[in-house]
Design goal:
mainly alpha, 74% helix
């Protein structure tokens, strides 16, 4: 039924619109970052520190200060549950498939998500252009609820990634707990919720005019850094087995997220759409974080197929979200 419906013209045009206004601009900015690092060999550690301790915490603070979702705790819990189910399926596939590699190599591409970084950019671009935004009102006002939900998913992905890396490196529960509390964005999120809850206004402060223009800076800086990471990551020749595995993940994540959203029955249409699209986003940058310093990356074979699914499959997920969870 869904396949037949997507053959209709309006859904084909909507999918093309998402590709033109979201995937294509991101691909161009990826290329810019890739070429910059190729010609100038940029210091990726500096960009990583700036992103981790300034770019993402400030974005999460601003998003949650402007709007607090009604299910501020249930949304991260649902998204974490979806990623954990995906990780479990990755582990089961590793046990079934006669592929070489460790359990972690298969769990990583299944459980990690680029909602930690570029996925939020994709969500911002999707909800600020057609077919989501149709010209009614101000796009900056229209996307605020969607971006606030996306910022919660960003925070969730950051925490999961940090905890997984700590567990991989140390195999210590104490270090994993410490990694959880070492995520800077966690504290800016709490600060934003407290300021909004106690009605402490920042709109008249000297910082507010700067914050109003921060979304555009976040989009450009994040995408260019993605291109830098892609150039520095070890990229082997394209292999069909990892590509098939990531395609399976894409389909499974859509199914898992739909089941969780539909049967929970607690999320608004806007929250459901963001959660559904975010679940479809694969791990690209999260995978490049493994082994970029040594040049040996056991999950590098998943980067290319993940990038293809990112640019071509996620627009399909965005249109599916509008069909399954229409905003009335």
């Amino acid at each position: 039924i869904f396949y037949i419906s997507f053959l209709k013209r309006r859904h084909s045009v909507a999918c093309l619109s998402v590709f033109i206004y979201a995937s294509l601009p991101m691909a161009i900015m990826f290329l810019i970052g890739y070429l910059l690092d190729k010609h100038f060999s940029l210091d990726v550690r500096t960009y990583d520190i700036v992103t981790r301790y300034a770019v993402m915490p400030l974005f999460i603070f601003l998003s949650l200060y402007r709007h607090i979702p009604s299910h501020v705790t249930l949304i991260p819990a649902a998204f974490a549950g979806i990623l954990c189910l995906s990780g479990l399926l990755g582990w089961l596939l590793q046990r079934i498939l006669p592929e070489e590699g460790t359990i972690r190599d298969f769990i990583s591409p299944f459980m990690l998500s680029d909602t930690e970084l570029t996925g939020v950019v994709f969500l911002i671009l999707v909800f600020s252009h057609v077919p989501y935004f149709t010209g009614m009102g101000n796009p900056k006002t229209f996307i605020i609820p969607f971006v606030s939900v996306a910022s919660l998913l960003l925070l969730t992905s950051m925490i999961i990634h940090s905890v997984l890396l700590a567990g991989r490196r140390t195999h210590s529960l104490t270090e994993m707990i410490r990694a959880f509390f070492s995520v800077p964005s966690l504290y800016t999120a709490v600060a934003a919720v407290l300021l909004r809850s106690f009605n402490i206004p920042l709109e008249h402060s000297f910082l507010w005019p700067v914050l109003l223009h921060y979304d555009g800076v976040f989009v450009i800086l994040t995408c260019i850094m993605t291109g830098i990471w892609l150039h520095k990551s070890y990229s082997p020749e394209f292999k069909w087995a990892p590509a098939l595995l990531m395609l399976v993940r894409f389909v499974l994540m859509l199914g898992i997220s739909y089941v969780v959203i539909h049967f929970s029955g607690i999320f608004s249409p806007a929250e459901s759409q963001v959660l559904f699209i975010a679940a479809s986003i694969p791990a690209v940058i999260a995978l490049t974080d493994h082994g970029t310093s040594t040049g040996i990356n056991p999950t590098a074979a998943f980067i290319q197929p993940s990038l293809i699914i990112y640019l071509l499959g996620c627009p399909l997920a965005a249109v599916l979200a509008r069909v399954l969870f229409p905003v009335i």
